[in-house]
Amino acid sequence: SSVAETVEAAPAGEFPIPANVFAETVTSVTHYTDRLFAFRMTRPQSFRFRSGEFVMIGLPNAEKPVFRAYSIASPAWDEELEFFSIKVPGGPLTEHLQKIKEGDTVLMRKKPTGTLVHDALKPGKRLFLFSTGTGIAPFASVIRDPETYEKFDQVVLTQTCRLDAELSYGRELVAHMHSDEMMQEVMAGKDLKFHATATREGETKGERITTLIENGKLFTDLGIAPLDPANDRAMICGSMAMLKDTEALLQAKGFEEGANNSPGTYVVERAFVD
Ligand code: A2P
After folding, report:
1. How many whole angstroms from 161 Cα to the centroid of ligand 1?
2. I need a surface site. Which of 45, 232, 260, 266 has the fewest CB within 10 A?
3. Are residues 89 and 138 in the same domain?
């Protein structure tokens, strides 16, 4: 059969690339902690996506590779693709993905999708991006997109992680936004604020984003007005528990969930783990 021929054609110990997926080359890998790493890879010329969307990622290490949803962390204009990943011990994909090196092949399904996109939000003045852990990935894309600063006067990115070291990816990214000349042009004189807390250690222990919204510390820390559905829009990305609790808070303030076909005042995406 033609399947047997394809298998024979693959070099020893390797598997044929499945039909209808891109096979891309890793260009860099950065490990942040024993649980977190980021990697960049080549971008297919024909591949288009909206900042904030996710794709299915896999490795060519089996006849039928395991694919998992990964938010694209790079902006739509970037010539490469960037991803920020957790390492799950024994996780069917991340157990292997965490070992990738420059030059390795990563598989990507062809269709991006997602709700953390400008199309799903009504126009507003301030954009709040609430994340926990690797939930910051889609926002790494959104805060590097010029459309974000065309549509909003102020962008407020928040991230909570258990440990301080887990906040490094976001901290470095935001520092780059403020120091890099090209990023300054992307931001077009608009304001980007970052509020990061470690919830299991140090001075910010216990400061979940939900707590910080409820007690108002998020707004006093940043010197900004409290949430107001008339002018504010929000995107949320984190664990199921965080999504549920943050959504409940926003809904109580009068925010309404949006979708691609019916824009609202907030949108949600689950963080993707093994
Ligand atoms: P905490 O340390 O208080 O549990 P996790 O690794 O469990 O997904 O947690 C990542 C981050 O999300 C941590 O800062 C954690 O805070 C926070 N978090 C977990 N559950 C919730 C929730 N229901 N609401 C808000 N933040 C949460």
Report:
1. 7
2. 45
3. no
- From 239, 249, 268, mutation site for ligand 1 pocket: most ligand atoms within 8 A of C-beta: 239
pLDDT at residue 5 in the model: 44
Tell whether ligand 1 has an atom less than 6 A from the beta carbon of residue 113: no
**What is the number of other CB atoms lying within 10 angstroms of the CB of residue 194?**
21
- CATH number of the domain that 136 lies in? 3.40.50.80
pTM of the model: 0.94
Secondary structure tally for the chain: helices H, strands E: 9, 11
**Same domain, yes or no, for 135 and 237?**
yes
- Which residues face 86 on adjacent strands? 36
Among 79, 109, 139, give the residue marking a domain's end. Answer: 109
- Distance from Cα 131 to the centre of ligand 1, integer Å: 10
> 248 and 136 in one domain?
yes
Percentage of the residues of the chain whose pLDDT score is greater than 70? 93
**DSSP of 109-140, one letter per residue?**
ES--B-S-SGGGB---SEEEEEEEGGGGHHHH
